[in-house]
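Q: My collaborator sent me two sequences in one message, no labels, and asked for predicted structures for both. Can we handle them in order? The first one she listed is below.
A: Yes, handling them in the order given. First sequence, followed by its structure tokens:
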Amino acid sequence: MNHFVVTVARGFGSGGKVIAAKVAEQINANCYENRILTLASLLSGMDEHYFEQANERLSGVRIAQQLSVIPKTVTPKPNAEKFAADDMLFDYQAQIIRRLANTETCVIVGKCADHVLRNYDNVVSVYIEAPRAFCVKRITDRMGIPEEEAHKLIEKTDKYRADYYKYYTGGNYWTNPVNYDLTLNSERVGVDNCVKVILDYINLKFGTHYEMKEQV
């Protein structure tokens, strides 16, 4: 196996994004989330006359180069608005995700990546969830907001993600464990142990030899 992709779906506040970033660090790979959305937005916003040129920009390893110049986001990004479909934007996201899966080892957070890559053999798909109290505490600590607001953000963001997943997968539901190789409770397992479990599964599935590096 020359390269592989880890997709991470997660409940808001579960620590899934942190776990994804830690997995990427352990396997010396890029972790992609909102940078994919940003690049897809740029491409889908182009005039129809330039679509062919935009598609050419999605070829080969140039995707990684374009994504690398887009700033990473480190703070939680809730989706407080209602879900509104944008098929063209999703199509560009899917193209970017597939090209990444064909060219490099990486971790992709969200974006229905597990569904987009469902027919790929070089994919490990993971879903991270945790009890509400655990998620609320993480959000209040990281965002500095009251508990009441954290509860509302969890409800709205998870509703948005569920609606997004249902629409673009043709009716599947986001929390269905059958969609994933692994479903982990980050409170019970612990963030670092979730990383270890994912690395162990990567080793099992692909015959690699990744180990958890010591944290300094």
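Q: And the one she listed second?
A: Here it is, processed independently of the first:
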Amino acid sequence: MTKADIIEWVAQRSDIPKKQAEMVVNTVLLSIVEALDAGEKVELRGFGSFHMKKREARVARNPKTGEKVHVDEKKIPYFRAGKELKELINK
């Protein structure tokens, strides 16, 4: 399912125009991104939670040349499925 599919689904289920559904979906996604960027944890009860993990800087190897490469530290977003979501999927 793509973002366009989600927008279509929201528009049909809510009986609103696609433009409004697109604004709703974009607002929800943007609020999640902004919260993660601010270092907050986002929890959607019954669905799951998003949080950030920090990867430390390290020395890696270029697999093509074998040359050592420095990789800077970075933040990685993680999603953990909630109990209800897991139960629905595994029915």
